[in-house]
Amino acid sequence: MEFFVFSLVDVAERKAYPLLVKQTVRSEAEKKALKERKKKRAKKSKTTKTKPKGRKKGSLNKDKNELHLSPELLRINELLSGLVKLLRVFIKVKYLALDGHFGHHQAVLMARENDLHLISKMRKDAALYEKYEGAYGGRGAKTKYGTRLRFDLLPIKYLTKSERVGEIITNYYQGVFLHKDFGQAINVVIIKKLNLKTQKAGHALLFSSDVELGWEKLMDYYSLRFQIEFNFRDAKQHFGLEDFMNTTKVGVENAANLAFLMVNVSAKLIKNSDEKCVGVLDLKTQFRGVKYAVETIKILLEKPDTILMKEAIKEVKERISQLGSIHQRKVANSTT
């Protein structure tokens, strides 16, 4: 089963709060489009011939800012538009962070349609170009694309920070670049790591449609997206998302939403707790202890006679020892 969750991330608290949960049921059109995409990739990987330069004869210009959402993005956009309208009654939301699966121009257009800026991750082999800064030749359209970026030899002018930890050197680059699939310039942060011992290098590309966003905030906001994984962990481990027994459509929706609701409730209880409560396990232990105490007091109040104290202690042991167990056996009440 697959669930799509929109969460609100508190940057100050560095914590995510799930707001909307929807089970993903792929339509036939979406399944067909996925199969065609896989076939196209397989065919492209087998083809070794290089494409001829230039455009095909008779091809027309395409508007890169025209919205052509896939069935998947249509489903997500429907959920996003309703949620954003509700959120903006209470708070200001500016950024939409999605994983690398949505690191393309149509996801940017979807975010901009909802007056949001997208933060996501690009493919490592993305074709990025500098803006052309040369003089106009005087004929034809003005040149738009400059030199293509080489990730093994990045210009020093884009370097913002360099740090070394042990044998690992990490360089951070930032610039506003062009991509031929995007209808606008994009703010890109390139994180490049080099192992001095093995000389192995690797890089990652984070980007945003907000060209004014600083590189540190861009990295920080994207990394905070991982807080949603902790929501899934708690919902599975503590609140039944992994093992509910519902089979109907409404039942599945209710079970999933209830699990994520309890994630929010537990987060609120932990925040307001006076005890040293740092997690859901601490919270469950605290409430279980309170339950034990209440049940014990109930039993003792039923046994004011000191002659029956021995039987009362026995009953306390039997009843309290079963609290929290799945299969509880019936305990005979000595007062009857």
What does this structure look like?
- The chain has a 6-stranded mixed beta sheet with strand order 3-4-10-9-8-7. The protein has a two-stranded antiparallel ribbon with strand order 1-2. The protein has a two-stranded antiparallel sheet with strand order 5-6.
- Helices cover 37% and strands 20% of the residues.
- It has helices spanning 28-46, 71-87, 105-113, 215-224, 227-238, 249-272, 280-301, 309-320, and strands at 3-10, 15-23, 95-97, 117-122, 129-131, 145-148, 159-165, 168-177, 186-195, 201-208.
- A hairpin with a 5-residue loop joins β9 and β10.
- The protein is of the alpha+beta class.
- The model has no long low-confidence stretch (mean pLDDT 84).
- It has 8 helices and 10 strands.
- α5 packs across α6 and α7 runs antiparallel to α8.
- It has a domain at 276-336.
Write the layout of secondary structure elements.
Blueprint: E1 3-10, E2 15-23, H1 28-46, H2 71-87, E3 95-97, H3 105-113, E4 117-122, E5 129-131, E6 145-148, E7 159-165, E8 168-177, E9 186-195, E10 201-208, H4 215-224, H5 227-238, H6 249-272, H7 280-301, H8 309-320
Parallel strand pairs: 3-4
Antiparallel strand pairs: 1-2, 4-10, 5-6, 7-8, 8-9, 9-10
